[in-house]
Write the structure tokens for this entry.
Amino acid sequence: MPERHVPDIVVARLPLYLRALSAIQREGLAFISSKELGERLSISPAQIRKDLSLFGDFGRQGKGYEVNALLARLRRILGVDREWLMVLVGAGHLGSAVANYTGFAQRGFRIAAVFDNDPQRIGVRLGEHVVRSADELDAFVRAHAIRLAMIAVPASAAQTVADQLVRAGVRGILNYAPVTLTVPPSVRVENIDPVLHLQHMTYYLSAEPEAAGTS
Amino acid sequence: MPERHVPDIVVARLPLYLRALSAIQREGLAFISSKELGERLSISPAQIRKDLSLFGDFGRQGKGYEVNALLARLRRILGVDREWLMVLVGAGHLGSAVANYTGFAQRGFRIAAVFDNDPQRIGVRLGEHVVRSADELDAFVRAHAIRLAMIAVPASAAQTVADQLVRAGVRGILNYAPVTLTVPPSVRVENIDPVLHLQHMTYYLSAEPEAAGTS
């Protein structure tokens, strides 16, 4: 368990530190300074030292952080020192892309099963999975004590699926449907909607003089 | 152009408002109160009123916001009252999924061309595109005055691709590669790495008593 209350904005940066440190470990470096780490992440060294100090004292005077030790500690803090099972709901275009993304398993998140309610899709092979009926979702989640799910259904169906998942015991939802979900306070939702990110950028691009002239 | 300086955290919420209001418009509602909008977005009505007041006065006493007018205004503010062309670099598993995602075009972002440097992929059909050689990237971006790009190459190649894009004139990059990119201050990068979101959630799930007991 976390040692003390950590602001969510700090928690959100920890996976970035983990990702960068994993790359640094692959490069064979044993130590890294907060300055070097900051340059790789475009985060100030002071911020990094402050964030990490919430979890203990990792740095060595003049040498920086010990990469292996900090990695192990971050994995434990984030709860990714073990494998997590997830269910994926939705086996259409988006769900298929999610199911075929190899980055999950490589980094400790394994899709245990894929579900859909479309009879055309149930029974179809999707990567290493055979798509199951959504009718089996509740029993499967309970039987395997699954806490993480990914939703890749159309926006109109996403809330219903989220409600089912929460009732079955899911506590974290990665939502690919372009809609805001409502869940109890005990459940966390993270959203992936690439168009929101594009629109965030076009705000600034549109404000540029040359773009304003063409709109 | 924005009327005054708007904090980036507010800018990041505008696409959420736009998405929710688009759904509300499809439902046929002419007006929406900040209370109802807040409930759909899990954002406080006070926050919504404060955010939107930065751009003018949209609400009508007792009736709420006029949906069509606010939508049109938000589209203009975000610069999405016109279509944006993008290039996609990377035609592997991840790039293929991105290329086949229909949500971009539906919401005004059109992939103009897909590039890869792997001879095995160049010339291959991908959705409505034929994958082009990365050698053509610079000339294509310049010829079409493209400002937005998506990177879906392996992490090890992403920075090189970003540098090429920036040199060619790209000012906004949606980065699907699991690595932090370094770009000049005039360029914006938004990142999509679903594993970071999962790790953000497992931090909290691991802190739960039952999970802590099993780890």
